[in-house]
Amino acid sequence: MTLTTTAKAKDIATLYTTHYSGTVSTLTLSQDSLDSFSLDLTSTKQTCGSMPSWLTFDPSTRTLYCSDEAGGLDGKGSLTALSVDLDYGLTEDAKTSTPGGGVSSVIYEGGDGMRYIAIAHYSGAAVSTYPLPLEPNTPATQIINYNRSDHGPRSQQDTPHPHEVVLDPTGSFILVCDLGSDVVRVYAIDAESGKLNTCPSIERPAGNGPRHGVFWTPISALGGNAMRRSQRTTRDMNPIETMFYMDSELGGTVTAFTVSYPPPSTGGCPFFEEVQEMVPYPEGNMPDDGTPAEIRLRGDSLYVSIRSDQGFAPDDSIATLARSEDGMVALDRLTSAYGKVPRTMVINRVGDLVAIGDQSSSNVAIVRRDPQTGELGEELADLKVGQPGKVGASEGLSSVIWAE
Hints:
Elements: E1 13-19, E2 23-33, E3 36-46, E4 52-58, E5 63-68, E6 76-84, E7 90-99, E8 102-109, E9 115-121, E10 126-132, E11 142-145, E12 162-167, E13 173-178, E14 183-189, E15 196-203, E16 210-216, H1 218-221, E17 243-248, E18 253-260, E19 271-278, E20 291-298, E21 301-307, E22 317-323, E23 329-336, E24 342-347, E25 353-358, E26 363-369, E27 376-384, E28 397-402
Antiparallel strand pairs: 1-2, 1-28, 2-3, 4-5, 5-6, 6-7, 8-9, 9-10, 10-11, 12-13, 13-14, 14-15, 16-17, 17-18, 18-19, 20-21, 21-22, 22-23, 24-25, 25-26, 26-27
Protein name: 6-phosphogluconolactonase
Family: Belongs to the cycloisomerase 2 family.
GO molecular function, one term: 6-phosphogluconolactonase activity
């Protein structure tokens, strides 16, 4: 819901969080006056397996999809569909088994109105897809397993570790950031079957560890929704008008790529050209224990959460990057994450609020954002959700999302 500066509103927004203890919680953000906000725990539900890790909200069907990070190469995770009622209460509708280690998901479209969800499985070294709406024990449309014959230069690179699935602005391609293999895998969506067909990957230097990524287009810069295939797509644009920005957990960098598309009639794959790599930290020096985690974009501002840098001790940092007309980015400022290990960060639809999910301190911080300048302001509300977790362990708060 829109934040106003005149109404003395209650219950201006609803958020959902996951916690590695096995819970999904509903939070209510209220505004008592212009500068008085509160964030309250409305309900907590034991659901989504033993290690809920990621939420994807489908507003068109009022369904919340939750991935379970339990399992691994030989174990099983799960995908749970929860219906959202008019009061934002949750009811578990369906659940199905998946490969282990689900840490990210995205909804995409096929032909004839079919819809699917793709999941990145970190410890399961796989990407899976499922048809929607989810039914109990729905079988996978596709499971793509990865392996590597050697061990990468970093301790986390014993095996492939897909960390995020990203839908491109045309809705025709899915990218998979693979931290364990130093590669961003690219797939074309087959409209008839919903399956993913392999395109050339974006290769990264050894030890880079791609984690998350975002696309920029002229429409996204205006705050519009992602373009659909029925509209003017980025395939019709020149390369500088579409860009992909990726943060690398192990390399401590943000990399910018121009994206060019072949003519739609050819059915070809997109081409990514690296144009910049930078360290999102003052003087280009990432602290020894600091690692980029989440990356978000709104307008010409990018935001990268920095875990364990203690930039605002005892709290960590959020780096704001300013994007210039040629697509290059530069560090604008660091602001507080208002907690330890900011694993997730989401901007509301209006663009005036940011929710930061701090994993180890297990709190959600609501921060003001200036929609015109992109500047992050003061903390408006804060709430601890569940027990704090040990830094470096799969404990504490794992995700947060706006219900909009």
